[in-house]
UniProtKB/TrEMBL annotation:
GO terms for cellular component: mitochondrion. It comes from Haplochromis burtoni. This is Glutathione S-transferase rho. One of its GO terms (biological process) is L-phenylalanine catabolic process. One of its GO terms (molecular function) is maleylacetoacetate isomerase activity. Coiled coil: none annotated. PROSITE patterns: GST_CTER (PS50405), GST_NTER (PS50404). Residues 3-85 form the GST N-terminal domain. InterPro entries: Glutathione-S-Trfase_C-like, Glutathione-S-Trfase_C_sf, Glutathione_S-Trfase, Glutathione_S-Trfase_N, GST_C, Thioredoxin-like_sf. Residues 92-217 form the GST C-terminal domain.
Length: 224
């Protein structure tokens, strides 16, 4: 089954990482994969463009079926291989509802994070403003506090309750990204506890970004 799957990915990318976690959880090791370099522009190569005309990673195929949106891939894998590996959509209505809610909040989370981390990369030097930087940081701070609050209210250690689910598969890489860029562990104790507990989960440990093992993080988010 795994031989039908192809994943082109980039190290450290939360969208790529969540697919790799899902593949591990569904016992689909041994799939075809290729690590590409964002720095070298390999995500714009013909190999990628043939699968993903947006020239982005991840690029994913299962047989002749192409899905390049990472959340869509995770749902596809759970649907197609629901009888094997970890059950990633809870049976309990309450947990399932919370899982869907958290999954579809991840794009807002990611946008606010990117507006801070990549501000200088996205905004030309002559168009940068201290007021915009301040607004972006305030928006991200409010967002992180929201997720800290979610974890304070949720018992069981996972985002949707007592079971590891697609909410964790999809959101954990974004939370790990915060810490990679210097989020304070002391300021957000529940988020830090969640992050440290899941770091050692086999699927996450097996897919930890190789570039993160080789290079130090940054402190861009130390004041968040």
């Amino acid at each position: 089954m795994a031989k039908d799957i192809t994943l082109l990915w980039g190290s450290g990318s939360p969208p790529c990482w969540r697919i790799m976690i899902a593949l591990e959880e569904k016992n689909l090791q041994g799939y075809n994969q290729k690590l590409l370099s964002f720095e070298k522009g390999e995500h714009k190569s013909k190999e990628v463009m043939d699968i993903n005309p947006r020239g982005q990673l991840p690029s994913f195929k299962c047989g002749d079926k192409i899905i390049n949106e990472s959340c869509g891939v995770c749902f596809f894998l759970e649907s197609k291989y629901k009888s094997q590996g970890t059950k990633l959509i809870p049976d309990c209505d309450a947990e399932q509802a919370l899982m869907f809610q958290r999954v579809f909040e991840v794009n807002t989370f990611g946008d606010k994070m990117g507006n801070v981390i990549y501000y200088n990369w996205k905004v030309p030097e002559g168009e940068r403003h201290d007021s915009a930087i301040k607004r972006n940081k305030e928006a991200l701070t409010a967002e992180v506090k929201l997720w800290e609050g979610y974890l304070q209210k949720t018992s069981g250690g996972f985002l949707a309750g007592k079971n590891f689910s697609l909410a964790d598969v999809i959101v954990f890489p974004a939370i790990a990204y915060l810490y990679r860029f210097g989020l304070s562990e002391e300021r957000y104790p529940k988020l830090t506890e969640y992050y440290k507990n899941l770091m050692n989960r086999p699927s996450i440990k097996a897919t930890w970004p190789p570039t993160w093992k080789e290079t130090p993080g940054q402190d861009i988010l130390k004041d968040i």
